[in-house]
Amino acid sequence: MYAPISSLPTRAQSLVSLPVKILVMVFALALAGCSTSSVSTSGYTGPSITSVKAKRTEARTDLRRARREARKEGRIVKKLERSFKRLERRVKRTKNEKKKAEHKKALRTKKRELRSAKRKLRRADRAVARAERRERRAANAIVTARKRKEAAERRLAESKKRAAQRKARLALAAKKKDEAKAKKTRENTLAALFSSEDPALKNIRDYQARVDGKFALAAIPVEKVNKSLFRQNVRYITRHKAGTIVVDTKARFLYLVQPRGRAIRYGIGVGRQGFSWNGSARIGWKKKWPTWTPPDEMIERRPKLEKWSYRNGGMPGGINNPLGARALYLTQGGKDTLYRLHGTPHWWSIGTAASSGCIRLMNQDVIDLYNRVPNGTKVVVL
Predict the structure, then answer these.
(1) What whole-number distance in Å separates Cα of residue 89 and Cα of residue 247?
(2) Residue 338, SS3?
(3) Which end of the chain is flanked by fewer CB atoms within 10 Å, N or C?
(4) Is the whole-model pTM more than 0.70?
């Protein structure tokens, strides 16, 4: 019976495990080779252009060597042929039989040398022919390798293009699915908001899209707006008479005072100019889709606005006009205070302190306020 491996001496165990180690190493190298060959940026798995060019260089070197050898053998053959002809002429001219015999003997020796040299020359010529064939094959191999690599690159590019198209299709499908899901969610949210009995959401339908004159007002995404900023009727105790507008810049609300301790509250955005003035004024005049003329201070900060300066006629009214759909111009003692209550296309700025401007309302709200208050209405800014 054979002894188990564990019972063998340590040296014997190492000898037994040596073939196993070699097999493991060979297998690991094979895997590394496979992974290296499979990782190709062009998808080409044939011989590299560099290695094929190296073979062509080697073939050209062999060809030059073979041609040098053939030229050398050719010179030897020509030299022997000239020597052979001289000996032939010497044999013909020589009359002395003894010398003639010596010349004939030398002629036979020279003839053997010439035959041997011609054989070497033929072998050299054949070597040149073989070297030329190898050089042509190497040159053709370069062309073939380039063509195969280009074909592999085209296949890889087409594969990447198809993969990109497939990815784009999947992304588009996912986007459409997400949009459909978001639309459905929004529809459900809107349905819940529109059917809500919450007093703060009583006027929420007024924030839908509408046409005002020659301009189309976009819908306010009511699901993204804090419900406290929507127009609503609230309890409001104040010493001011009904019909007065009270602007609370800190709380970001505008109140249109109503009888019996009530008020219509609007959410507002307050700009730097909105904090720069307080007191009481009156609405001097109102304007639909007003023209905007940025002040010189703003033009200094943003020179691109020069084209809308009062010298150039200002920016005409429109959807993107910073004054929005309506503007109420405040006067004090018959003079313009440069303070305005106006709309804005930037609904997301309502409830915040914007970088510039006076008091801004959502376009739908400023239209409602415009229709409720006449010129001369008192405005109190806290």
Answers:
(1) 136
(2) strand
(3) N
(4) no
